[in-house]
Amino acid sequence: MNIVILAAGQGKRMHSDLPKVLHPLAGKPILAHVLDTARQLAPSCICVVVGHGGERVRERLSSSDITWVTQEPQLGTGHAVMQALPYLDPAVPTLVLYGDVPLIRTETLIRLMQTGAEEHLALLTVCLDNPHGYGRIVRVKGCITRIVEEKDAEDAERAISEINTGIIKAPTAQLSRWLPALGNRNAQGEYYLTDIVALAAGEGMTIETCHPEDSWEVEGINSRAQLAALERIAQRNMAERLMEAGVALADPARIDVRGELLCGRDVSIDVNCVFEGKVVLGDGVTIGPNCVLKDAVVGPRCVIGPFAHLRPGTVLGAAVHIGNFVEVKNSTIADHSKANHLSYIGDATIGSRVNVGAGTITCNYDGAAKHRTVIEDDVFIGSDTQLVAPVTVGRGATLGAGTTLTKDAPPDQLTVSRTKQFSVAGWKRPIKG
Ligand code: UD1
Ligand code: CA
To answer: Among candidates 83, 115, 290, which has minimal Cα distance to 180?
Structure first.
């Protein structure tokens, strides 16, 4: 099949400089969801029709399997598909998708493609309690004769609850006959793709319909509120998938996955955690409330949070503990090591069974470049220690609390860098005059 994705609309109601289809939904651009779904169908071509902001869309989502077509000016959905016609294989049917309808299921599209004969027109329709704004499916004795847009409809037609989702399967050879025959004498002065339905019916073609399982599959995004509503649905779907796979979620309504989250067995995730990019959680991992993890790999039986922040390049071994207000970036921490309170661990390589005391900071940045901190196995780091990188703490070493380490610490010894404590006998606090 050919796939045409319509994405030339301006998205004015977003009130944004970013093209509408580039706004993120569950961590990736709205249009990327549609593209990924389209790819599942292994089409012979994917044509994306862009208009306003098209260059930015093309740059952001460029891929060798996409043919980009510019529609300028935007004269309607029929006009948009017409711009893609030269790139379509006339021998196979064409599936039209909308770039701003991101949650359509692959299975629904497969069913639509299997609806009716290959040379027949098939429409994805739904019945809505409030069909306001949509094109209505007009049937005579059960057979579809045309689609009428809200703005062109008479009262009786407005009462029809079956609406056009906009997603259709059309025979490509007929499409190239129908599209040039469209007129624009309607309430919006546009070339309506929906008018091909009347042309097909006029030729005696039977027009079939198929329906999505859930109505959110065909919901479009025109405003920030609609984007937020679909974000919730995408998150709920993700949470359901995780729970089906055996993940314990304290509250499926309070998890946000903005990318890919891979979990082992018996993973438990408390409320208000955000997962970005690709996050891998090993068997038996426990994530406390209010954690943010991005592009991180967490080994089996690790205990994370509450309030932990794992940033890109974090790789934790088995049974590592990362506690509250601890930030880890671009660091490897081996088995059974712990950093439980108030720390920054950046650009570090930490061995096994290391205890990182409360308030420990790796000073990885000198204002110009980043440097690494190496902490070998069985090290004990006292509280409130600063490790000024590049620096290495040898195996089994102990750093006294409050140490500012600027030179390597030898293995198995105590290293402390603080002034000796002293007391002044008879000293009095100053008194206000
Ligand atoms: C369209 C349908 C309507 C259907 C509704 C579902 C037509 C004439 N009407 O109406 O029957 O119920 O979608 O949401 O087809 N686009 C372009 N170029 C254009 C115009 C639109 O690429 O010149 C794209 C938009 O970016 C969008 C899609 O086509 O992805 C639909 O456009 P929109 O303006 O939302 O269509 P509606 O008028 O809502
Ligand atoms: Ca619309």
So the answer is: 83
Number of the ligand 1 atom closest to the C-alpha atom of 79: 23
Q: pLDDT tens digits for 340-379?
A: 999 999 999 999 999 999 999 999 999 999 999 999 999 9
**Binding site membership of 79 for ligand 1 (Cβ less than 6 Å):** yes
* Closest atom of ligand 1 relative to the 191 alpha carbon: 8
pLDDT value at residue 272: 98
Same domain? 65 vs 10: yes
> How many domains is the chain partitioned into structurally?
2
Tokens linked to 74: 């935007």
Q: How far apart are CA 408 and CA 390, in angstroms?
A: 9
pLDDT at 274 over 90: yes
CA angle 268, 259, 53 (to 5 degrees): 155
The residue whose C-alpha atom lies closest to atom 17 belonging to ligand 1 is: 8
Given the DSSP bridges, would you call strands 296-298 and 386-388 parallel, antiparallel or unpaired? unpaired
pTM of this structure = 0.94
Spatial contact of 7 and 49, defined as CB atoms under 8 Å apart: yes
76: Cβ below 6 Å to ligand 1?
Answer: yes
How much is the mean pLDDT over the chain?
97
5 CA to centre of ligand 2 in angstroms: 14
Nearest CA to ligand 1 atom 35: 9
DSSP 419-432: PPP---TT------
Whether residue 71 has its Cβ less than 6 Å from ligand 1: yes
Domain CATH number, residue 308: 2.160.10.10
Q: Tell me whether residue 120 is one of the annotated catalytic residues.
A: no
**Interval between CA 121 and ligand 2 midpoint (Å):** 21
Which pLDDT tens digit goes with each residue over 285-316?
999 999 999 999 999 999 999 999 999 999 99
Please enumerate in sequence order all residues whose Cβ is within 8 A of that of 396, keeping only pairs 6 or more positions apart, or say none.
Answer: 376, 377, 378, 379, 411, 412
Task: Name the token pair of 408.
Answer: 């390597």
Q: In CATH, what number is assigned to the domain containing residue 37?
A: 3.90.550.10
Q: What is the pLDDT of residues 113-147, one digit of tens each?
A: 999 998 999 999 999 999 999 999 999 999 999 99
Single-letter amino acid, residue 282: G
CA–CA distance, 85 with 66 (Å, rounded to integer) = 14
